[in-house]
Amino acid sequence: MTTAGEIMHPGAECIGDQETLADAARIMRERDVGALPICGENQKLLGILTDRDIVLKCVAEGRDPNTVKAIELALGRPMVIEEDEDAELVLEVMEKNMVRRLPVINHPDHKLVGMISEADIARHMPQERVAEFVSAICAE
C-alpha cells in the first residue's frame, strides 16, 4: 500500500493568517509553488491560498494585495489527509471535493507535514489511475 506520506511533497510551510497576499505571492515565487497553506496559532491549518485566489479574489476586484490578509481568503474548512492513509483515499478525497491540492497532516498531532498536488499524483500513481483522476477533477 502506497501512503499519502510517500507521495506528498514534504516540508510544506504555512503562510501566517495575518500575512498579506503580496507576501504570499513572493513566497510562492521563491518556492515555485502555486499554493500555500494558511496557518494560525499553533500551526493550525485554516485554509489554502492559491495564486488563482490572489488574482481573482484580490487583484481582479481592485483590492490591494499589500493590505489584504491571507485569513480573508481562508474560506470553509480545508480538506486534509493523514500521512498514513492509503494513496487511493487521497485520490478519492480530491475527486469528491474537486480539489487539486491536499494538505497532509500527521497523527496524532494533526500538524501539517506536506502537500499533495496533481504533479505528485502523476509521479507516484499508475498512469491509468492518473487519467481517471484528471478526468474527474477537470469534469465541469
TrEMBL record:
Q: Does the keyword Phosphoprotein apply?
A: no
**Which Pfam families does UniProt cross-reference here?**
CBS
Keywords of the record, alphabetical order, are:
CBS domain
Out of the domains of life, which is the source? Bacteria
Supply the InterPro entries for this chain.
Answer: CBS_dom (IPR000644), CBS_dom_sf (IPR046342), Diverse_CBS-Domain (IPR051257)
Q: What are the CBS domain coordinates in residue numbering?
A: 8-65, 74-132
* SUPFAM superfamilies (alphabetical): CBS-domain pair (SSF54631)
> What start-end ranges are recorded for coiled-coil regions in this protein?
none
The name on file for this protein is: CBS domain-containing protein
